[in-house]
Every structure is written in structure tokens, then in C-alpha cells.
């Protein structure tokens, strides 16, 4: 049972981690690029140090070669002058310098190989970081598009603000006209009180009219004209 619980917890943690990565993907990309930039800077410093050491060793090689050449010439002159004692001493010094020269040449060769390897790595890392930065620009653009699409989907969803606005508009438009309602109420009151029947009889000519009509005014005007 505990094994099953552990598997379920591991799965839940993995899903939570995936959700975090999805949510903060752009931020994580920027952080990784900063780390890669920092590592590249450190590699450049190391490369510069190696190149500096190689140049120093090359200068020592050139110096040893020059000293060996000069000392060899002097040893030859000592032998020519029958000063073998001086020639032997010079030969011993030349031997020591040649041994040192061999070691320094090996060091130069080793540093040269390391410089070439590290320089290639730095160039590769630089190109990769450039690609990563371009990819980060694309990722940010995609994330903005996704955010805009998410907001648009919410607007188009059933419980969106637009739907709520439409419902409110419909509610206002569908409300009863208060003027028409008051007119209907008056008609109802007149019908209940008998006023409606009285008006109908008056309009039919039975009894005095309850209200002045256009025909009444016109007849009065014609009578005055006569």
C-alpha cells in the first residue's frame, strides 16, 4: 500500500512540476539563458588564461633557443681556442637548456590543444546561446498570443462578460412600456366604472357628447360663417 501511495505522490509531484513549468516557462527560459551566459563568460576567462599561458611559454621557448644558439657559438669558439674546460661547462649548460626547451615545447603543444578545444566549445556555446535568445523571443511572442487567445476564449464562453451584457440588454428591452401600461390601466378603470359604455353612447349621438371632437369644432366654425 505504501508503495502505491508513494507512486501516486510521485505522479502528483511530477504533474505539479509540469504545471509550474508550463506556467513559468518563459521565466525559466530566461533564467537558463542567464546561467548559460554566465558559464560562457567563465569559459572565456579560462580560454584567455590558457592563451596567456601559451604565449608566455612560447616566449620562454624563443628565449631558450636564443640562449642555446649563443652559448653553442661560444662553446665552439672555446674548443677552437683549446679551452675544453670552458667548452665542457658550456655543453652542460646547453644540455640543461635543451631539456628545459623540450619540456616547454611539450607544454606549448598541450596548451595549444586545450586552447583549440576550448575555443571550439566557446564558439559552439555562443552560437547556441544566440539560438536560445532567438527562441526565447519566439516563446514570449507565443505566450502573449496564448494569453490573448485565453482572454478571447473567456469572452466567447457561455459565462462571459459579453453574454452577461447581452442578457442585461435583453432584460431592459423586454421590460413593459410604463406609458402603455398606464393607458391600459386607465382603459380597465373606465370599463369597470361604466365610463366606456357612456363614451360609446355619447359618440353614437345619444345624449350630449362627453368630449369635444374635431367634427364638433368644424360644425361650430361653419355655423359662425353663416
CATH topology of the largest domain: Helix Hairpins
Strand content: under 5%
What is the count of β-strands?
Answer: 0
Main β-sheet: number of strands, strand sense, barrel status? none
Could you name the CATH class of the largest domain?
Mainly Alpha
Overall 3D form: rod-shaped
Using only C-alpha atoms, the radius of gyration works out to 53 Å
**How many helices?**
7
Extract low-pLDDT stretches: none
Helix-strand makeup class: mainly alpha
What's the architecture of the largest domain, going by CATH?
Answer: Orthogonal Bundle
- What order do the SSEs take from the amino end to the carboxyl end, as H and E? HHHHHHH
- Bin the helical content: over 70%
What separation lies between the terminal Cα atoms? 117 Å
The mean pLDDT is 76
Number of domains: 2
What does this structure look like?
The chain has two domains: 2-161, Helix Hairpins; 176-225, no CATH class. It has helices at residues 2-23, 25-80, 84-156, 161-173, 178-193, 195-203, 214-225. The longest helix is centred in the middle third of the chain and has 73 residues, at 84-156. It is rod-shaped, with a radius of gyration of 53 Å. The model has no long low-confidence stretch (mean pLDDT 76). It is an all-alpha fold and 226 residues long. Helix 2 (25-80) runs antiparallel to helix 3 (84-156).
Any chance you could write out the topology, listing elements then pairs?
Layout: H1 2-23, H2 25-80, H3 84-156, H4 161-173, H5 178-193, H6 195-203, H7 214-225
Helix pairs in contact: 2-3
Amino acid at each position: 500500500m505504501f508503495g502505491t501511495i508513494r507512486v501516486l505522490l510521485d505522479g502528483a509531484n511530477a504533474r505539479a512540476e509540469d504545471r509550474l513549468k508550463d506556467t513559468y516557462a518563459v521565466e525559466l527560459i530566461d533564467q537558463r539563458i542567464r546561467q548559460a551566459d554566465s558559464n560562457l563568460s567563465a569559459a572565456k576567462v579560462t580560454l584567455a588564461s590558457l592563451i596567456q599561458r601559451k604565449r608566455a611559454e612560447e616566449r620562454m621557448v624563443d628565449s631558450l633557443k636564443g640562449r642555446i644558439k649563443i652559448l653553442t657559438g661560444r662553446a665552439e669558439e672555446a674548443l677552437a681556442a683549446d679551452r675544453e674546460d670552458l667548452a665542457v661547462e658550456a655543453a652542460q649548460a646547453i644540455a640543461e637548456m635543451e631539456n628545459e626547451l623540450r619540456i616547454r615545447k611539450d607544454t606549448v603543444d598541450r596548451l595549444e590543444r586545450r586552447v583549440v578545444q576550448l575555443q571550439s566549445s566557446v564558439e559552439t556555446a555562443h552560437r547556441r546561446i544566440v539560438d536560445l535568445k532567438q527562441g526565447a523571443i519566439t516563446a514570449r511572442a507565443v505566450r502573449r498570443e496564448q494569453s490573448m487567445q485565453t482572454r478571447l476564449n473567456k469572452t466567447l464562453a457561455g459565462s462571459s462578460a459579453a453574454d452577461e451584457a447581452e442578457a442585461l440588454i435583453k432584460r431592459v428591452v423586454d421590460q413593459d412600456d410604463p406609458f402603455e401600461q398606464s393607458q391600459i390601466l386607465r382603459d380597465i378603470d373606465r370599463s369597470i366604472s361604466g365610463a366606456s359604455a357612456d363614451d360609446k353612447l355619447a359618440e353614437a349621438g345619444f345624449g350630449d357628447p362627453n368630449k369635444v371632437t374635431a367634427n364638433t369644432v368644424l360644425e361650430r366654425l361653419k355655423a359662425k360663417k353663416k
